[in-house]
Each structure stands twice: as C-alpha cells, then as structure tokens.
Amino acid sequence: MVSRKPFDRIDSCRLEKVTKKYGDRFAVKNLNLEIQGGELLILIGRSGSGKTTALRMINRLIEPDSGSISVNGIDVREFDPILLRRNIGYVIQNIGLLPHLRVSENIGLILKLESWKEEKIRERVKYLLNLVSLPPQIFMERYPHELSGGQQQRVGLARAMAMDPPLFLMDEPFGALDPLLRSQLQDEFCKIKKELGRTIVFVTHDINEAFRLGDRIAVMNNAELVQVGTPEELIFSPANDLVAEIVDSKRKYRHIDALKVRDIMQPLEKRYILYPGMSAASALDYMVKVGLEVALVFWNPENTGRVYLNDVLNAVSSGKSLEEAAKPLPLFSPEISLLEALARLKAEGESMGLVLEADKPAGILFSDRVLENLI
Amino acid sequence: MVLTGEVLQATLEHLLLAYAALAAGILVAAPLIFFSLYSAKLASLIMKFSNLVQAIPSFAVVALVVPLIGIGFTPAVIAIMLRVLLPIIKNTYIGLFNVDPALIESSKGIGLSEFQIIRHVRLPNAYPAIFAGIKFAAILANSIAVLTALIGGGGLGSIIFEGLTNFNTSKVLAGTLPVIGIALFLDFSFSRIERWLTPEYLQK
Amino acid sequence: MAIQSFNDILVEVMRVWTSQLLSLRTLEHLYMLFVALFFSILLGVLIGVLTYKNRKLAAPVLNSLNVVETIPDVALLVLLLPIFGIGVGPTIVASILYSILPIARNTYTGLSNVPREYIEIADALGLTQREVLFKVRFPLSLPLIAGGIRIAVVFTMGVVTLGGLIAAGGLGAALQNGIQLYDMGTILVTGAWVGLIAVILDGIAGMIENIFKARYGKWS
What we know:
The structure holds 3 protein chains of 3 kinds.
Chain A: E1 12-22, E2 25-36, E3 40-44, H1 51-58, E4 66-71, E5 74-75, H2 81-86, E6 88-92, H3 103-113, H4 118-131, H5 136-139, H6 149-160, E7 167-171, H7 179-196, E8 199-204, H8 207-213, E9 216-221, E10 224-229, H9 231-236, H10 241-247, H11 249-255, H12 261-264, E11 266-267, E12 273-274, H13 280-290, E13 294-300, E14 303-308, H14 309-318, H15 322-325, E15 331-332, H16 338-348, E16 352-357, E17 360-366, H17 367-374
Parallel strand pairs in A: 3-8, 3-9, 6-7, 7-8, 12-13, 15-16
Antiparallel strand pairs in A: 1-2, 1-4, 4-5, 9-10, 11-17, 13-14, 16-17
Chain B: H1 4-38, H2 40-54, H3 58-68, H4 73-97, H5 101-109, H6 114-147, H7 156-165, H8 169-197
Helix pairs in contact in B: 1-2, 1-4, 1-6, 1-7, 2-4, 3-4, 4-6, 5-6, 6-8, 7-8
Chain C: H1 6-19, H2 22-53, H3 55-70, H4 73-84, H5 88-112, H6 116-125, H7 129-162, H8 171-181, H9 184-216
C-alpha cells in the first residue's frame, strides 16, 4: 500500500471548543488552542489536568465528544486515521519499542508496511540512528531489552521520525530518564528540532523542561486551558496564582544572591565517571554496556574532562587516547557563590562545569539549568 | 440387551477403582511434597521427573504395569495412581512456590519461622492450585480406569471392550455413557466446590 | 523367557521388533501423530484468533472444548466409531478434538493479554487493526502458543497410542498384542519405545517453546 500523505507541512493545527468527558468527569473542557507551524508548543499541568488527553485527540487515538480539531484548516476526522497517524510522529514516556523487533525493525516497521525497498529502509534507519547519536553499526541489530533507557528513548525518537512527519506529538518523552541524561537528550533534541524544523506538541509536568524546550507554553488545570504564552509572558504576567505557582517566579528570585553552587548543581552518579588508565576501547565498551552517552574523565583535579560516546568512538578509530578525546571542564567548589560560578562559565563559553568536593567529583553545574531555576 | 445390574455393578467397581487410586495418589504425593519443601534439590528432581513421565502415553504406563507388577485390581490401582500422582505434585509445587518473593521476605522480616511461612503463607496461597490438581487428577483417574480394564482391573472399561470385540454397539454405549456421565459430574461438582473453597480475595 | 545378560536383552528386543513389525508400527504412529498435530495447530490457532476477534464466542467455544477434554479418551474414541468407522479416521479426529483446546486457549489468552502500551504505540504509529494483530499481537503470543502446542503433542501422543485398540495400527496395536498374548517382552520393549518417543517429542516441543520464549517473550 502506497499512501498519500494527508499533509506535507503544518501551517496551523487548531483545537476549537474541544470537549471530552469520561462519565461525569471532564477530561478536556471547551479547549481552544492554536499550534502554529514550526513551533514547539508545551502542554503543561498536573497529572489529570487533561494535557495528555488533548494531545491524543490530535492523532485521533481519542475522539472528542464535541468541538473540532483541524490541521491546515481540514478537520482531522476527514483523514483516514491510519494515514493521519503515519504522518504524525508519536513519542511517549514508556517508549513502547516492540520487544520482538530489532532496533532496525522497530524504526523501519512503518516503512516496511509502506512497501519501501529493503535497501532504502536500511539507509533511512542508519540515517536516523546517526541523527539520534546511536552508531548504527553497534545498535541496529540489537533488541530493545539490550538497550539502556536513554538508548531506547533515542530509538523511540528515531522511529517517530521514520516517515519524516511534519508534526510530532510527544508525551513526557524524557520523563523516565535520570537528570544528567535527560538534560543531554533535551540538548540533542533541540538540535534535531532546529535541523528538521518540525511542528511539535510536547506534554510535560516539568517546568524546567518547558522553559528549556518550549517556544510557547500552554498551562492546563482541571481539564481547562489556563494560559498560553511565551515563557516570559508566563513569568512576568501570570494569568492567576496557579500559573505563578507553576512557573514559581517569586521564590527563586528572592534567593539569587544567597545561592551557592551546591544549591543548584545536579548530583553526579558514580557510573558517569571513567577512572585513570582506562583505554579508549575499554571506555567505549563500558559506556555501551552501562548505556552512557556522556561520561566524565576524572584522573585528578588537574586532569578532568568530558567525553561523548561519539568522541570515544572517534578516538578508538583514530587511535587517540581517552585523555586526548576528552574536552576539559571548568571546576568549581560547591561553596562558592552561584553568581561567581556563572560568570566564569560564561567567560569560558562553557555550558557545564564539574563540582568538586574534597577533590572528588560531586555534581554537575549546567549554566542553562541555573538560569531556568532562577527565572 | 445389557443387564442394568451388570452396568450398575461395573459402575461401582469403576468408581472404587478410580477413587482408591486417587486416594492412594494423594497419600503418596503428600510426603513427597513435604520433603521437597525442605530440599530444593529433591523438589527440582521430582518436578523434572514428573514432567518427563507426564509425556508418556497412559496406555504405555498401563501396559508396562503388567510385566512389572502383574494383572488384576491392585496393578490397575497402581497404574492409575502413578498417573494421577503427577498433576497433584506438580500443581501443589507450583502453588507453593509461586508466592511473591517479597511476601516471603516480609514474612521472614516479621519473624515467622520456615515452617510457619509454609503453614501460614505458602499453603493458603497454594489451595486453589492444589485443588485444581486434584480435580484434574479425578477426571484423569476416571479416564484411565477405563483403560485398566485391559489388564484385568474390571469396571466399565470391561463392558466397553467386550462390546468392541463383539461389535455390540449397545453394549459399548452401556459402558461409555456412564463413564462420560461420571466425567461430566466430576467436572461440574469440582468446579462448584472450587468456587466454594476459593478464598474471597482470590475470586474475580 | 529368562534374561540374564545384555546379549539376551538385545535378542529379545530384536525378536519383538521383527515379530511386532515395530518399524512399520512406528511409522504408522508418527504419521497419525503429525497429521493430527498439523490439523490441531491449524484449527487451534484459527479458533484462537476467531474467538479473539469475536469475544462473545470465546466463552461458549472454549467451554465446549473444555467439556470435550473431560470425556475419557477411550470413550471419545468409541463415540466416534459410528461416524468414522474404525481405524485411523476416528483416532486422528479424537486427537484433534483433544488437542485443539490447549492451542486455542493459549492463542486466545496470548492475543488478549499483550500489554496495552504496545497496542497503543502500534495504533499511534498508524498500524491498521490487521497489522496490529499480525505484526504485534501474534508474534508476542508465540511463546504461549508454542506452550499450547507442547501440551497438544503430549495429548496427541496419548490418543494415537490408544488408536491401537480400534484397529488404527501404530505402536498401540503392538502394546495391545502384548497384553492379549501376555507377552512380557513385547509389552516391555514396545512400552519403553513408546515412552522414549514421547519423551523425545516432548523435549523437542519444549526446545521450540524455549526458542520462542527467548525470541518473543521478553515482555512477560
């Protein structure tokens, strides 16, 4: 079956007076929302606020009781749901990679059902795996249970991109990951997003993630839309106390001068640290086995750095040592003032620094995270 | 025509044969299970052996009893017993060991002894499975009791096989219908008791 | 008949093997077994899929098959005689009637119990109902279906052996001869041979089940 795409690009996606009830309870009540072509719109709210229901109505996994949803002015009910969904990428928190299919088969599943040629599918799968920073030669033939959580999430993202859909729906895609990995995936996701220029609707309950990724943010509460706007609009003119509380503006401003690095740093797990004497090859083995995409090289306080999986891979193929592959990192004590640390990061043009306590790595300081926590 | 008295007599014989064997099976199974609770090695040996023997066709088991033990009522009981032993042991074992390990941990945590855990945690959890095993064994005993007529065990099987060799359809039916009746009655009544015995928290 | 040495055993085995035509009996036996198994799998999976697609049918169909299962095997064979005559026909039909249930039930259970998250993601990816059934539900049910087939192998083996009592040939015929002639050698050799074949077939079915488990069973 060769299907026609219902749409090639998104000019707008509009939800008008959309209502969905389960029994007596409103899941979504009279929702009006417009998603502009090319933007990343965040849907944020507590669990049960209706954000996921709203998301799932766009690709017709749930049908609204009343109101309409349209893409480029055409009601989604006029599209065949199968064609509609194949043209919308969908990524969820628990990923849902099919356990009986290899990574390549998971990503290529729809392509196969769309009768692509085997050769073309392989090519596309390789391209997508590279895009999400998973070396195809290592990962293509693996089964999902052989991947770490972060790797599975990348495969999930690659699968959603398989058909090159103009619209993505993402439901807390990074929610199950640990903080360091989450922030790294968010970074990469930002890059991919810029490269591909797609329209994305993104559900989260994490305001930091919302500020980091969103062009605009829609706040939902009790099945209703409370406010929609840019991060600045939400911070500086929150529609009500709830929004103010969610963006948490007051508390953080108050403490800015008193904060130390310790208050804002992300705790560092031991498994992220590579130890002295490790060769690039064994570091690669270790990172693949443990499922790390980024690791810290820590020899001693004078000799530290960070490496990405790709750096290590390149080092192995070009015969470089692990130390040569690592990029140096600024070092901080947890007790110095946050403002001072930020100034140094900015001066050195770095986005992250390592926090050392008694000459041992204790945490990571992300400059963009700090800003978000302060806003 | 077949005499009603003959069928009645055979039915009683049949029931006696099948349920003597079932009772014997339960009596033999109990100590085996008891010992296997205390020895994981013995338990896995018994399970492996049970699984292996269960694959062997009943007819072969019944036949093999002849050269090893002989013919007549007692060898028939032993043949049936050998057969029904397995589902009873297997189900009991599965029931006893399919308990959530966390539950066992916490039972140890509140200070229950090994025996108390078996008595108060594992056993209650195993009741439905044990009962299902006995139900299956009862139906199986009825079925194999037909076959043991071939080795002189008597019962309804004798009437069936007599009818078969003489091409006497009514005689065949006179033996077959009570056997089926017994099977359906067993299935029905055991299902009833099962529902009655199942603790409330396990019912849907 | 006094057996004193390994050589005597060998002589006795050879005597039984030739006098009871055990090569031929084995072939007959396996032929019935595989024909019956082939149709059991075909019908069992089909009924499993159909009851899955039509939930209302599930309870009545599976319960009636369950009733068939409680009927003693000899009685079932005997009941089929007026319809199918004697010999291979009723033996194969009875085997199938017995073996459909474990396969159908496991297929039904497997298809019904695939975790919701996989179904949801398949829907969201844009798989049609058919594709969800055959690309997601069915492969994920294969370990359970293979488990059902393993049970069916044991059932079929049992019923086919009984076929010897109604002139279907196979190894059951040799066993019956042994009992009727009160020939201990025949009973022992044939009985052991039947047991060995049964254990080997069960082992093979178990291996296949384990392969499926390793390949498709990672979610359970």
